[in-house]
Amino acid sequence: MADLDFPPHSPRLGEAFYQTLLESTRAIPWCIDWKTLAFTYIGPQIEALLGWPQDSWKSVNDWAERMHPDDRDWAVDYCVSQSKAGTDHEADYRALTRDGQYVWVRDVVHVIRNEQGEVESLVGFMFDITERKKVDEKLSELQKELEELSFKDGLTGVGNRRMLDSVLELEWSNARRNRQPLSIIMFDIDYFKQYNDGYGHLQGDECLKQVAKILSKGATRARDFFARYGGEEFMLVLPETDNESAIKVAERCQQLIFKAQIPHAYSPAGQLVTLSMGLATATPAQRDSIQALIKTADSRLYRAKQSGRNSLISAG
Question: Can you give the residue ranges of the GGDEF domain (predicted)?
Fold first, then answer.
């Protein structure tokens, strides 16, 4: 490996000083001749990081081949294009170690030009950023978890009101644009106050979680969306679903609750947990609003509760 072509320096500071300075840092210095694309220097620290001997770095081909296949194309293309343009740049990628592992590396590149302004060489430093990447990935995972939590109901784990409002707006717009029906079903656990008073709030929370888990099975298609509307009320959003099909979904949900046989000794409607349901369907026109659809479903839910509960109102 040829010696690095150091810049002019004070007579008091010899080349050995600069060599020692470069090789004592954890960053790995390197230099490439642009005309031949050959390494004219790379620091001995490279062997400690990647395991490849210092004198095995002959040309940019060695650099490219010792890169993760998923990073190679974009990293090489980017670095070459920036170098041709004479632009200083940096790139993060996974470098292959001699024992077959990968290390995250950041290459910081400075383009050296001759007196005519032509690219003459590339000088850079390679940094091990593996630990930083691990921290970044962990923070990204935590951020994703926080985002998911912000759209989930803390008790039941199903979608919360914030997510429900977003989904309703989106599906309403889709239904209006595509002239497709949109149905929503509102559920209310019958006599839930009596359940809480009789069994206690802890058991009441368990009941809410159990009912939510059962009703979420009504969302059988990818775009069906189930959420907690508030208190003991839930909502199922059914895109591209007409009233007749939505009735079948509601009836299936009612059957699932019945099969679960959740005891409710304090219910005037029977000895099991039951549901009141209000269903509304619309193929929205330009001036229609999602609030009107929700109001219709809520009104029908209220009528189902007033008419003896454990029932579904889907029209009128």
Answer: 180-316
